[in-house]
Amino acid sequence: MIWVTWRQHRAQIIVTAGFLAVLGVLLLGSAVEASRYVAEHAPPGCPGPAVACGEVAVALGRRYDAVYSVFGWMPLVLPALIGAFWGAPLLAREYERGTHRLAWTQSVPVWRWLAVKLSLLGGAVVAGGLLLSVMVSLWRPVFRTGVDSTFGNIGVFNMVGVAPAAWWLYAFALGTAAGSLFRRTLPAMALVVAGVAVSMFTLFQLSDHYAEPARAELSGTVLLDDHDARLVRAAWVEPSGREVAEPAGTGCPRRVDVGQSSRNAEAWQACLFGKGYRYAVYYHPPSRFWRFQWTEAGILALASAALGALAVRRTLH
Prior knowledge:
The chain has helices spanning about 1-40, 50-65, 65-95, 100-105, 110-145, 155, 165-180, 185-205, 260-275, 290-315; strands at about 215-220, 230-235, 245, 280-285. By secondary structure, the protein is of the alpha+beta class. Strand 2 and strand 3 form a beta hairpin. The mean pLDDT is about 85. This is ABC transporter permease.
């Protein structure tokens, strides 16, 4: 069965391995070149608050805009492709071609056929997701140290840690279940793409509830010192201690002038702070990174198990 699985799915395995190899070379090459660029142009003390450090970061972003664009689409596109080309054809193609009548009447029982294929391909998918996570984790610090967020940026969060493996496994299970339900490859592929997008949006909305948000009251500024935190919500706190979304009747003018919006907002906030208002921020600190990673991975693993069980039940009955 292992040899049969390889023979039937070698195209997906080879293409995925080739993609990861090419991506690894691209990331390695860009990281080496970027390291040399930073070493030649960045003054001592970077990354840091110095203006020169910011200029180097901006120049680096422009220099590698194409790489950033590819990276930005990967959190959504890669799981959808795994589900569409690994999961959806697994059962749907057997039904479409009628080969299930031959494959499932041989000496190998149906349950064993399913067990071997699901375990081998599922394991390969998880390994590929973990490999991607390692490559991205090694690549990002060259470009984003002290600038970007690993925890607060949901796109980056889904590309590091155990999240890629969990999402790839979920997409694979979703595609397999869709193939067992529709028994047609193209409808199963369409369901996977839509399902992954909806699932990612849903978990993004639910992620704020993985833990009780921390609360900080700020005075003199509305920005947290930790830029890697994941913001949940914010509110103004009146001198009486009551939280309000928008202060009213404060006597602080709030002007809206074209080209001066940032300066006017700062003046309005300074007026409120001067009258005793405080700014309450609810957030998740970066120290919860692995808690959120394992929580989301657990949710996706349970969903994958349920979808796999559905596919097995549909196939056996």
